[in-house]
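Our collaborator T.R. sent over the components below with a one-line note: 'Predict the complex.' Nothing else. No constraints on interfaces, no templates requested, no preferences about which chain binds where. So this is a plain run: every listed entity goes in together, and whatever single assembly comes back becomes the starting point for the next discussion.
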Amino acid sequence: MLTFEAISLDMLLTLEADRLDALPFGAVGLSSAGIVEIYNATEAQLAGLQRETVLGTHYFSVTAQCMNNFMVAQRFEDEAEIDAIIDYVLTLRMRPTPVRLRLLKAPQTDRRYILIQR
Amino acid sequence: MTTDLEAENAALLQFLYACPAGLVEFSAAGAIGMVNPAAMGLLMPIAGRPFVINLFDVMDGCAPELRNMIHNFAPPQGTVCDGHRIVTGRGERTNVVACTIVKLTEDRYVATLSDVTEQVARERRLKQAETWFASLLDGVDDVAVLSLDANGCVDAVTPSATRQTGFTEAELLGRPFEWFDRPDRATAMPLPGEAIAVARRDGWYLHEGWHALADGGRYWCQRLVAVRNEAAGAAAGYTLVIRAVTRQGRDTADLRRMLTRDHLTGASNRAHFFETAERQLVRALRDAGSLALVVLDVDHFKRVNDEHGHAAGDVVLREVARRCETELRPEDIFARLGGEEFVVLLPETSLMKASAVAERLRTSLAREPIVAGGIELRITASFGCSALDTDPSASLAGLLAAADNALYNAKRSGRDRVELSHPDQAAA
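Returned assembly:
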């Protein structure tokens, strides 16, 4: 199942690039240091950014300062394992936009994911 | 393929996403049009929830004056405020946010927001030093010098001190220097011992406040406590220099009022309340004394605003503040916490006494209607009380939460009443 609620961390890790881009929600994959490794086409479209300029940057400093708090960024620091959906407001293209975020992290995997559904 | 225009657009967006200062565009009613991530990052903790669509609603709890400032700004465009400081949080962690607002058209405003908490703390120290050294240049005639022992008690007096204060040498000797403090409700004095502790740490401590005169009067002065004879790392004593500020003109008085008073109601502002409350709390805990808080919230205030307009609402808030302040002692602090919510700080007061004070305030509001714009409005308020003698939480945030809880009970059981905090219940 490739839905926002059901897709697993393992599926995200093995999904080919074109299928990742075809997901109906945004998917951002971060290294353990918070560097953007995966930025799918849906998210690039929602944020109005080009993938190449986001890849390799520190996500919570450069693109998503509004997630750089105890509700999102801090949780990835503090918790070994996360699979949680939270209601949130992002500033996509500087418009306050209510979204649902799904945070995914597992102890045996370095890469973490944030899924964003408008 | 992306066009040049699209690439440029993406670069601009990235620039705004990465901007370290908060930017918000909003309407005259406060509705947020555009907002960048840094601003959202600052607003979300203030709102306490990730639902941020109206700037005034978010700020109502800590800076209700924003709405008035914008409403009262008559020019068609221009700077409404520049670096206006907003104290956020409720005791546990107070941050200071600097806010600049520019009016673009009748219905379009842009604001910048930035967290200046640490800057404010640094500035306060610097400003003290600056004031002091600048004042020295004004002449040394009005400077009194005393010597303090390692505990801060006067152990030697110069003629300048007896001349300035009118006290004899015998009256001054042996007294802790703080004994001569004569604070009023607008000045927060340091705790006894605090000046000495800071001087020991930093080499000096500077404070401005009221000081006693032998004839029973008082005078405004700046005081410097400086470490003397620091041998083998231990302070042997201190020099106390008191400078009388004789020309405490209108400007200084206005500035003090502006820094400690709420723009609309003239009650104490949040910054002043938290500063004084923290000091009083430490004092009460140290002396095993009590301290009480009464939180009050005007009932159905939204209805007043909706049915009679914000101008009528403002009249009501001013009158509520005026009536309450008349009922209080000079040492009590009456402050506006935000919106239609006020708090009373009652030093050396038990929960039972606080409840009697709250009842008096309640009656003074309910007794006669308030006249706003030619209309008589029946205004009541709900009250919640907490105090140190019954609530062992021992933190300002804990006392406020307990009073809030009691206030909530007063609202729920029909308003226009006083409820007391029950620590057992709060814990459950």
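Summary for T.R.: The radius of gyration of chain A is 13 Å.
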